[in-house]
Amino acid sequence: MSPIRSSTSRFSILLRKKPFPIPSPGPPCPSGILIDEEISPFYNPRNFYPAKPGEVLVDRYQIIVKVGWGVSSTVWFARDLQGRIEEPESIVALKIASCNSSLRAGDGEREVEEHISTVNPSHPGRSVIRTFMDSFELQSSEDRGHHSCLVYSPLREPLSMYQRRFEDKRMPLPLIKTYIRVLLTGLDYLHKECRTVHTDLKLDNIMVSFEDPIVLSDFMKSQLENPMAFKINSTGRPIYQCKNEFGPLKSLRSLPQLVDFGLATRVEEDDDWGVWPIQPDHARAPEVILGLGWQMPTDIWSLGVLLWDMIEGNTLFQNIHDQSGRYDAKYHLSEIIALVGSPAPEILQRYQLMRNYSWPEPIRVEREDGKICKTAEEYFCGPFFDNDGRFLYENLIPDRKLEDTVPSLEGEEREEFLDLVKGMLVWHPNFRKTAGELARHPFLQSK
């Protein structure tokens, strides 16, 4: 029996896809210009894996083109060589995390996504959440640890890029309604079934699928003919400039998916809540700013804020930074009060109780100015309310009304939209609608 197995194995190898020849180098970039991940303020090239086109990882994935980057990872499209020669090309997205002796980037993301992928596969929202298909580790070239690698199905682009393909960055309203309904179904699965908070909802973390397989196929062929520009940095490493322009839309058949669970947090019990700062600046919920503790409803607030980015093509809270461009919580709270109203008495009572709550030692957080903070008030430069519950910066409250922030909607449609978001932008997180409830709202059912 052994010789037969050996012969079969050799035959399978012969039928397996072969790596493409290493492509010719692309045009050089000026050495003095920062590219992609180099822009990050804490960038250290030795922490990033020096991936290069043509390289085959773990004897299976051949890297072709870099399509994305972040402060702790790069993303590449690669060929999966496991398929047989006669089978169509299989393309995957590889997220290669940086390595750091004090932080194993990618490990938390892998753990959360393993949980999400297995809780309840029959829930319709499960398909809205992209989780990894495979994972492996690569040894750092300078013995600085390991790089965690997660393998995903490829997606077209983030919603922030997708919506630019439409006039004035406004997608057709029926399409937006479909997207919102789909995203809420995904959050219903994430919150109700997985008890997980995404914590980082933004347009860049909502991606859309390819509307037609030929778009991806044509893109991959073009990369072999027109390789990425690159430069050699001061450490002798090549840095490639990502290419993620897939061309005009062939149709509107793309669907959204929630991605990037590197900052996601599982909530084990009802009385288990986070206290450290989360969320993008303009989508930050009031309970996060005030240090009241947060759970799943913080994601609902964030998505509610993002609806203006989707429908109006601009942000709801427009003046939340100081003159130097830094996020300033007192300006943000001023806008929240103008548009949503003053906080509920229960919120003010909890704020007074939590003002001096000190984060546990491992959760000390460093501000942009280098100060190590142990309370939300320290981090966000409070206090914000006096002992009587009066807002300390009433002079900053702008003369704006929520009803005036959606000029593109009229009549009943406008009223239904405002009714939807008023169930999301609520000071008290316990009184916000759940994702499942919101997905059934009349605004999302009408065409």
From TrEMBL:
* Claim: Repeat is one of the keywords in the record: no
Q: Which GO terms describe its molecular function?
A: ATP binding; protein serine/threonine kinase activity
Q: Which residues form the Protein kinase domain?
A: 61-444
Q: Which residues take part in binding ATP?
A: 95
Q: Which GO terms describe its biological process?
A: regulation of RNA splicing
Q: Lineage of the source organism?
A: Eukaryota, Fungi, Dikarya, Ascomycota, Pezizomycotina
State the Pfam families in the record: Pkinase (PF00069)
**What's any one GO cellular component for it?**
nucleus
- Its name, as the record gives it, is Protein kinase domain-containing protein
State whether keyword Kinase applies.
Answer: yes
Keywords noted in UniProt = ATP-binding, Kinase, Nucleotide-binding, Serine/threonine-protein kinase, Transferase
The record's section on InterPro entries has: CLK_kinases, Kinase-like_dom_sf, Prot_kinase_dom, Protein_kinase_ATP_BS
- Whose protein is this, by species? Penicillium angulare
